[in-house]
UniProtKB/TrEMBL annotation:
Boundaries of every Major facilitator superfamily (MFS) profile domain copy: 29-497
Major place of residence: membrane
Membrane disposition: Multi-pass membrane protein
Residues passing through the membrane, by range: 27-47, 67-84, 96-114, 120-146, 155-175, 181-203, 215-234, 254-272, 293-320, 332-350, 357-377, 389-411, 432-451, 471-493
Name of the molecule in the record: MFS transporter
Superkingdom assignment: Bacteria
Molecular-function GO term, any one: transmembrane transporter activity
Alphabetic keyword roster: Cell membrane, Membrane, Transmembrane, Transmembrane helix, Transport
GO cellular component, one term: plasma membrane
Gene3D superfamilies xrefs: MFS general substrate transporter like domains, Multidrug resistance protein D
Localisation per UniProt entry: Cell membrane
Length: 509
């Protein structure tokens, strides 16, 4: 390398290491980052609406249908902490660009899927690159916006995308499935990603963290593999044969074998994290009582909520015969409830503290889920579904705002990023486990209902009645998960109103 090239390289590295004070194109960079993050958030829900069509095209079984969702959320949640470390040490811009490109390639593979396995693998690959992209986006915002007021605005935009993206995904999935093809729910990411990369290369500056750059690969492998096998064990329990009879069930050696190996791997993960020098998940973050309670509640809420939305979409299209777009639009009341509650809970936090807001929210969400159990083959959307979804969304909105505060209780500054990432990861992992568990519960209940009414096997309504019975059973179990989350908050969380300053950051030691 020539002296001139070496000097230029040195200048580039110094620029990459220095804080980006008042970077002139930071707002343009925010737009690019926001578009890329929206792509990741959309993909968590966009395929829910397209699922019935994908099932028919690719021959996906009822037991395996949940993999369309969980293959994405598992790898995304399981690798999120590792992705944050990679972004910090490898370079945030570089990780951001690689994440977008990889996400686009995975989306192309999913859009061209020829069977269920190829679709599941593509969705898992989307999760891998999403786990690079999401933390890199957050880290870039932290570095680009150094002024407190500007940073608040930037994170407000980011938070709005995170909150509204899921709802937009349901509508976009409906539009693309109705007017194009379900494959475009994945293929649409390709042009968006290419534009984002082209702009990011020119506009977004590089930055990276200093210090130890070792990665906890064993921890990442053990956590992701353990969670995947746990979901696979849940799936095996709900597998049926050609006569719609359960092949394994919960007590079979096959089911128990996969669940047992999964729990062993997760136990090994905990052991590794306590002994390795650079743990993926420092145990000091999760073992503090209040934070641990918040993470456990987050996992339970993710399990109940994401699992429930999964069945609402199926109910709308398969039982009520709504089009994908009609289905997406009719799911929006959940998001409306979340948005209404978010403003109220933000105002209540400094007055009564995060604990009562979050505990009440989880209980209200459980009540909304119980109301969903009133659905039937011929019930009205306006009287049986709409009120339940508004209440469910309102309750969830009351949990999301205080959750971010509680999760940072007593966290040292150098652990703040990891502690925030654990909240996101716990929701994704909870959603994966909840979707798999509730899907199996629903199949088991539907199979049992069909068997009990075998005398009516020729009645075409029997299949729909069996499905609805399965959905209702899943909603009951979802309400239990949300109620347990409320109990966890009441028993474990210790954070009062004095621990939430005006700007909303918890500082309790």
């Amino acid at each position: 390398m020539s002296h001139v090239a070496t000097e230029r390289h040195g200048k580039h590295e110094r620029h990459a290491q220095e804080p980006l004070h008042a970077y002139p194109r930071r707002w343009f960079a925010l737009v690019i980052i926001a578009v890329a993050q929206l792509m990741v958030v959309l993909d968590a829900t966009v395929v829910n609406v397209a699922l019935p069509h994908a099932k028919a095209d690719l021959g996906i079984s009822d037991a395996n249908q949940q993999w369309v969702v969980t293959a994405y959320t598992l790898t995304f949640g399981g690798l999120l902490l590792l992705g944050g470390r990679v972004a910090d040490y490898w370079g945030r811009k570089r990780t951001f660009v690689v994440g977008i490109l990889g996400f686009a390639v995975a989306s192309g593979l999913g859009g061209g899927a020829w069977d269920e396995t190829s679709l599941f693998l593509a969705r898992a690959l989307q999760g891998v690159f999403g786990a690079l992209l999401a933390p890199a986006s957050l880290a870039l915002l932290s570095v680009l916006f150094v002024d407190a007021k500007e940073r608040a605005k930037a994170f407000g935009v980011y938070g709005a995308i995170a909150g509204g993206g899921a709802a937009l995904g349901l509508v976009l999935g409906g539009v693309l499935t109705d007017y194009a093809h379900w494959r475009w729910c994945l293929l649409v990411n390709i042009p968006v990603a290419l534009v984002a990369v082209a702009l990011a290369v020119r506009v977004v500056p590089e930055s990276r963290a200093q210090g130890n750059t070792k990665y906890d690969i064993p921890g990442a492998v053990l956590a992701t593999l353990g969670l995947s096998l746990l979901v696979y064990g849940f799936t095996k329990a709900g597998e049926t044969d050609a006569q719609q009879q359960l092949k394994y069930g919960w007590t079979s050696p096959v089911t128990l074998g996969f669940i047992g190996v999964a729990l062993l791997l997760l136990a090994l993960f905990v052991i590794v994290e306590t002994r390795i020098r650079n743990p993926l998940l420092p145990m000091r973050i999760v073992l503090q009582r209040t934070r641990g309670g918040a993470y456990l509640a987050s996992t339970l809420i993710g399990a109940g909520f994401i699992g429930a939305v999964f069945f609402v979409s199926l109910y709308f299209q398969i039982v009520l015969h709504y089009t994908p777009l009609q289905s997406g639009l009719r799911t929006l009341p959940i998001s409306a409830g979340v948005l209404m509650a978010a403003g109220l809970s933000s105002a209540l936090l400094p007055k009564i503290g995060p604990k009562p807001v979050m505990a009440t929210g989880a209980a209200v969400a459980a009540a909304g889920m119980i109301l969903l159990t009133r659905i039937g083959v011929d019930t009205s959307y306006a009287t049986h579904v709409l009120p339940a979804m508004l209440i469910l969304g309102f309750g969830l909105g009351c949990t999301f705002v205080p959750l971010g505060n509680i999760a940072l209780v007593g966290v040292d500054e150098h652990d703040a990023g990891a502690a925030s990432a654990v909240v996101n990861a716990s929701q994704q992992v909870g959603g994966s486990l909840g979707t798999a568990l509730l899907n199996t519960v629903a199949i088991t209940a539907a199979t049992s209902y069909f068997t009990d009414h075998q005398a009516r096997a020729a009645d075409p309504r029997l299949r729909l009645e069996s499905m609805v019975d399965g959905y209702v059973t899943a909603f009951w179990w979802g309400s239990v998960l949300l109620a347990v989350a409320a109990v966890v908050v009441i028993l474990l969380v210790r954070a009062g109103k004095d621990d939430v300053p005006a700007e909303g950051a918890v500082h309790l030691g």
